Amino acid sequence: MKKLLSLLFVISTSFVCAQTVVVDSCNVLSKDYIFSKSRVIEVKNRKQVNDAAYSIILSKGTTYIFTACKKEDSKSDMEIQLLDSKDRILLTNFSSEKRKYFNKVSFVCNASGTYFVKYIFDGNSLPGKGESTIGYKVPDKKKSKAH
């Protein structure tokens, strides 16, 4: 029985490790950033469009990175928007000038508080499916004292 439990532990541990290794390359954070959260976003119809928005608390002086990766079976690209409490767009991964979606964008928070992350699929064309990862890095206190 003890050998069976040990074998099950090894198998389950191997499975968990395998899951963490299989990561979409655009969701990989650079070594400077600490992982905060990851979400799979799927919007199948127009009624779900408003459901693809989440609140997040950000801290002043911290740099955040947001990734937006559409899944292979998605019919549209995924835009990520960061909005303030007044619904103003502070950040997006879509460049209207270049007509291009970027996989990663960063944001330096100037005021601590509640913000909203909204996911939009290619002008709300549906269905859309993607994954987003959020990471952060805390400013180096030695560098900020030197300035």
Question: How would you characterize the overall build of this protein?
Answer:
With 147 residues, the protein is α+β, with helices and mostly antiparallel strands. The chain has one domain: Sandwich (Jelly Rolls), CATH 2.60.120.380. 18% of the residues lie in helices and 41% in strands. The protein contains 2 helices and 11 strands, in the order αβββββββββββα. The chain has helices spanning 2-21, 141-146, and strands at 34-43, 53-58, 63-67, 69-70, 78-83, 89-92, 94-95, 100-101, 104-108, 113-121, 128-137. Strands 1, 3, 4, 9 and 11 form a 5-stranded antiparallel β-sheet that branches. The longest helix has 20 residues, at 2-21. The chain is globular and about 45 Å long.
Question: Total number of helical segments?
Answer: 2
**Helix-strand pattern:** HEEEEEEEEEEEH
Number of domains: 1
Percent strand equals: 35-45%
Shape: globular
Q: Unreliable stretches, pLDDT < 50, 5 or more residues?
A: 1-24
**Main sheet?**
5 strands, antiparallel
Question: Structural class, from secondary structure content?
Answer: alpha+beta
User: And the CATH topology?
Assistant: Jelly Rolls
The end-to-end span amounts to 63 Å
The tally of strands reads 11
CA radius of gyration: 19 Å
Return the CATH class: Mainly Beta
CATH architecture, by name, is Sandwich
Percent in helix: 10-25%
